[in-house]
Amino acid sequence: MEILMSVWQFFQDNILTRPQFFIGFIVFIGYLLLRRPVYDAIAGFIKAVVGYMILNVAAGGLVGNFRPVLAGLKDRFNLSAAVIDPYFGQTAAQAAIEHIGRSFSMMMIVLLIAFFINILLVLFRRYTKVRTLFITGHVMVQQSSTALWMVIFCFPQLQNLGVVCMLGVLLGTYWAVASNLTVEPCQKLTDGGGFAIGHQQMAGIWITSKIAKKLGNKENSLDNLKLPGFLSIFNENVVATGILMFIFFGIIISILGPDLMHHIDKGFSPKQNFLFYILEKSLNFAVYLTILQLGVRMFVSELTNSFQGISNKILPGSMPAVDCAATYGFGHPNAVTFGFLFGAFGQFLAIIGLILFHSPILIISGFVPLFFDNATFAVFANRLGGIRAAAIIPFFSGIIQVLGGGFAAYYFATGQFGGWHGNFDWDSLCPIIGVIMHNIQYIGVFIVVILLLLIPQIIYYKNKDTYFLIAEDYDKYKEVIAKKQGKSVDDVIIE
Amino acid sequence: MLKVIAACGSGMGSSQLIKMKLEKVFKKLNIESSIYHTNVGDAKSQAQNYDVVVCSESLVSVFANVGKNVKVIGLKNLLSEKEITEKVEAALK
């Protein structure tokens, strides 16, 4: 017994509470189970461990870079602040979890359980009506991190085993049900492209597909619009992040003033010019985000690879739910820029609103929600409701992102660590689930899971005859619709 | 050995999808390849050292100035092996 206990203790001290090794061994064992050669498994182990450690360096850098600014805001205005971006959100969640002494390794177990639940829901699709498997690895890591903090926040007494099991079921259900909502909009946009969206704004895509037609006319689309050339610089992640951070932190740090910054930030040397200090500080965020993404890419690519393999095995009849950028090829390049632009208008307006109404939290726009959510909405909206819908929907999405993200960062206290997840679903649907969870505890979780599971059932009962056909055989689906409309297959109107 | 870059906005999701599909297609076409996936900014600066760049159609304009020796393939459906096969065959002819 004593030996067993000491083995467990060793395991706990060296692996379980060290996420890098925990993830490394999961990849290692996964490869062996997939019957890949041992040298592949060792390479996978090293890449996963190094990837995670890179991520840790970057997370530390992000938090450290932010700390003096947060301290300044607290000191001068009694404000907290959050960048609404999934990478900042993930970092803030990790910091919050480790701050109260819990292990961040649970994130990986949550991810695996949730993925497994999603597989089960697809395998039993005759009963569950779920047609999609979520395989976007980096998004799964980000959402598992944020959701893990939300559950620990709502159930501080719950032991680790309970946390990972309950959250695994909840998150897996969300992945399955939300991505399932995008099957119809995606097939219509891509003319049977054979994929759905598994990202961070599935509820938003579904809403867009329902309201875009009513907001405008698709004949008046933005394909003919000429957008100014300088906007193309926002295509590059580092440039866009650098510009955004320079605008926001430039304003914030200028207001705090050089004297206070000298006092708070020992890294601000007396000889350094204030403007260049601001420039360095802002661009540091781009530095750490680039490093963070390098780390995530390293340990996630192994994960996504095997998820894709599993997804191929349980086809046909189910669809992979992938990154939202997969839709961009089906929209005019203008749509992507246009969505970003109007999302930014909405966000900036809402941020000004937060300041005017003395919100206790300040929101800083992050690149990922601003660009990827709103560009995706614009692609769908332009197709269904033309230029007007492609302006209105991202604009309101921007407002929701700031207000919902601000509420969530305040309510779930990640504002103290400078970030919130920030993508559309995580500024709307998920904080609502969190509030339910916080207030009515286990019963709330139970109700949420049941309500989520009801959604695919309702959609199924509305279109029983074509519900599975659209995912299995799009050509046949078109024939059925053509027959219903009394038209030939070439003239069929898919609404 | 064909050197290929798969690129997308942040170098995370779609570029990895492209990479996985490309690996399958190249295997079928019996083309030996090494594929690197990354974001467009990185891809743009490194494109010179590669034979082929593959990305979403919406990003093709980014690679307008990479030079004639680099083939740029823009995809509509990143997950369609049929489209990828056709475009790869046309580009390598």
From TrEMBL, chain A:
InterPro entries assigned: Ascorbate-PTS_EIIC (IPR051562), PTS_sugar-sp_permease (IPR004703)
A Pfam family matched in the record: EIIC-GAT
Biological function: The phosphoenolpyruvate-dependent sugar phosphotransferase system (sugar PTS), a major carbohydrate active transport system, catalyzes the phosphorylation of incoming sugar substrates concomitantly with their translocation across the cell membrane. The enzyme II UlaABC PTS system is involved in ascorbate transport.
Subunit and interaction comment: Homodimer.
GO aspect biological process, one term: phosphoenolpyruvate-dependent sugar phosphotransferase system
TM spans (from-to): 15-34, 41-63, 104-125, 146-175, 238-261, 282-300, 348-372, 392-412, 432-455
Family named by the database record: Belongs to the UlaA family.
PANTHER family membership: ASCORBATE-SPECIFIC PTS SYSTEM EIIC COMPONENT (PTHR33843:SF4)
Principal subcellular localisation of the protein: membrane
A GO term from the CC aspect: plasma membrane
Membrane topology summary: Multi-pass membrane protein
Species annotation: Pectinatus brassicae
The organism's place on the tree of life at top rank: Bacteria
Entry keyword set: Cell membrane, Membrane, Phosphotransferase system, Sugar transport, Transmembrane, Transmembrane helix, Transport
Compartment annotation: Cell membrane
Protein name, per record: Ascorbate-specific PTS system EIIC component
Record keyword Transmembrane helix present: yes
From TrEMBL, chain B:
Stored Pfam families: PTS_IIB (PF02302)
GO function terms (MF aspect): protein-N(PI)-phosphohistidine-sugar phosphotransferase activity
Residues of the PTS EIIB type-2 domain: 2-93
Organism: Pectinatus brassicae
Keyword Transferase: yes
Superkingdom to which the source organism belongs: Bacteria
InterPro entries: PTS_EIIB-like_sf, PTS_EIIB_2, PTS_EIIB_2/3
GO BP, sorted A to Z: phosphoenolpyruvate-dependent sugar phosphotransferase system
Keywords of this entry: Transferase
Protein name: PTS system ascorbate-specific IIB component
